[in-house]
Design a protein that fits this description.
Blueprint lengths: L1 H13 L3 H19 L9 H12 L4 H12 L8 E8 L5 E8 L2 H14 L3 E2 L9 E10 L6 H11 L3 E4 L3 E6 L4 H10 L4 E10 L7 H16 L3 E6 L12
Antiparallel strand pairs: 1-2, 1-3, 2-8, 4-6, 4-7, 5-6
Helix pairs in contact: 2-3, 2-4, 5-8, 6-7
Length: 247
């Protein structure tokens, strides 16, 4: 589990650049539009409330959030996006799940298949690797002087979290999907700073790739994440702590 998180942390660090931040906002904007379709009120639309929390955790400006919701409500012109998920394999038998939002599934499946193929991967049938992952609520928060591990453990028990993983500068907290919103609200009320907050797929176990294959695999993930229609890429590869740079 932690290896997958380390890779995600690497991506989060790179997301501090203006270009990466803009791309991230664009992807979350699509999620907001889809979630708000039919009911733009987060007070009565739990899915929209969850995506808004994810947007705020990624420091998305309130004006951007409101604009995306307005598009879904028909107040502004917007495209009609559809959620699609693809599964497949990377080098070394690695498992990959690609979640997308698209207004053109033919374009998206072609882009994903081509990108994977160029890096030694291939798309598979629905269900070919999803059984290797669990759906979990995920919250990453900053580790501060006031939030030591004992305090964090107490918070997790009160919030109904299933598990947490401590790091030098942050904590990762895992919950059941249906307990995530309440746990998120609990930590928000405690005034903690979210690094990330979302429902995500977590691998049941990790595999290790030898250096050459690891470089190829990382390149595939990076290229998939650069595709406009791709929202999230989940995998089961252990990315070493000190592996902060793209090959």
């Amino acid at each position: 589990m932690s290896g997958h998180s380390k890779w995600h942390n690497i991506q989060a660090k790179k997301g501090k650049t203006d270009a990466a931040r803009s791309a991230r906002f664009s992807k979350i904007g699509r999620e907001l539009q889809v979630a708000a379709k039919g009911n733009p009120n987060p007070d009565t639309n739990a899915k929209l409330a969850d995506v808004i929390a994810k947007a705020k955790a990624n420091n998305m400006p309130n004006d951007n959030i409101k604009r995306c919701i307005a598009k879904a409500a028909g107040d502004l012109e917007g495209k009609d996006f559809k959620e699609v998920t693809y599964e497949g394999y990377g080098v070394g038998g690695s498992a990959v799940i690609i979640q997308c939002l698209t207004d053109n599934t033919n374009r998206t499946v072609s882009d994903v298949r081509t990108t994977m193929g160029r890096c030694g991967g291939q798309m598979g049938n629905s269900g070919c690797v999803s059984y290797m992952f669990d759906n979990k609520g995920y919250i990453a928060i900053e580790r501060t002087v006031d939030l030591d591990e004992d305090t964090l453990m107490e918070y997790c028990l009160e919030a109904g979290a299933d598990d947490y993983v401590p790091y030098d500068d942050m904590y990762e907290i895992y919950t059941a999907p249906d307990a995530w919103s309440a746990a998120r609200d609990f930590f928000e009320e405690k005034g903690v700073t979210f690094i990330e907050a979302e429902i995500r797929l977590v691998p049941q176990s990790l595999i290790t790739l030898e250096p050459a294959r690891l470089g190829t695999f990382k390149k595939m993930v990076a290229r998939l994440e650069e595709l406009d229609d791709v929202q999230e890429v989940f995998h089961n590869v252990d990315i070493p702590d000190d592996d902060d740079d793209e090959d």
